[in-house]
Amino acid sequence: PSSTHSPARSRAVQSGRGRAWPCLRGGRPRPPRLCVYPPRFYTRAQEFAKFYQTCYNMCTQRSPYNWSEQLYQRHGETFNSYLTETVLPAMKEKHDEHLLKELVRRWFNHKIMNKWMKKFFLYLDRYYVRHHSLPTLQDAGLRHFKQLVFDQIKRDAVNALLAEVNKEREGEEIDRALMRQCVEVFEHMGMATLDTYIQDLERPLLTETKNYYTRKSQAWLETDSTPAYMKKAEKALADEATRVGNYLISVTSARLTSVCVNASFASGSHSNVNSSACVAPGSSSNCWPIHLLA
Questions:
Q1: What does pTM read for this prediction?
Q2: Closest CA to 111 of 23, 44, 189, 205
């Protein structure tokens, strides 16, 4: 409507800009405060309407009274300051399983923050973001978390995850729900792809799996008969399949099985086991088809 860009309204927005920014700044701490644990959803409808209306007023004026660009920048600055000043330091203080718990907690909180920031600045997504081919507010929030937090701690997180996997392989009880939640973080960091999961988590997992079962197979060969060795190898394969189902992603299954089988019969193991007696898993025999591994 013509009233949207009326001179009177433009002058009102311009003259009220000094009041508009404090209003938004007053609202900016709200989303981070939603990110305590457990989260407190206390943003009232009147508060939300005020923030949304302020954003709308500042985005619907003609230049030079349109502040869409500045609002989009402020949206990013809010994430940057909160993630670098609050989240990342808290993450770096944690290690091992405590780091994994903190990662899950902070990611859960970030999703809440991202949701509400998107709601507050929704009008930016509708026009400014689309017109300038910028990342949506949702995607921008995810990218901020990935670049400022996840990329900084992912190596330590992967090491902690692999340590938990090896604990489980040794018969210890681990928090499988926590493991699944951590894997989901890696999945989300791929931005609708599995690239981050595969490159940053699956590849180190496969390398560690190869090393683990190479060591185990050597120990089994030194102490066990052929039938006992094959029973342990079969159990290892079954355990890895269960592990994928419990907290990994299904695409890992075939590669993990292949690595486990080949590592179990590497380093000259083939010559020490009677391959002619081995048939496929699931049959009446406890052996694996070693002749297929050549």
A1: 0.78
A2: 189
d(CA 181, CA 11): 51
R_g of the chain computed on alpha carbons: 27
- CA atoms of 74 and 22, how far apart (whole Å): 12
Q: How does the average pLDDT of the chain come out, rounded?
A: 81
Predicted confidence at residue 288, as pLDDT, reads 47
User: How far is the C-alpha of 226 from the C-alpha of 232, rounded, in Å?
Assistant: 10
Where does the chain have alpha helices with state H? 7-15, 17-27, 30-33, 45-59, 68-82, 88-92, 96-120, 122-123, 130-131, 137-145, 151-169, 176-188, 195-196, 203-223, 226-247, 252-264
pLDDT score, position 289 = 45
Are 196 and 190 a contacting pair, CB within 8 Å? yes
Residue 154 · residue 88 · CB < 8 Å: no
Distance CA 108, CA 104 (A): 6
Q: Find the mean pLDDT for residues 56-84.
A: 89
Cα 176 from chain centroid (whole Å): 16
* pLDDT single digits (tens) 138-196: 999 999 999 999 999 999 999 999 999 999 999 999 999 999 999 999 999 999 999 99
CB 143 within 8 A of CB 50: no
User: How many alpha carbons fall within 13 Å on the CB side of residue 19?
Assistant: 8
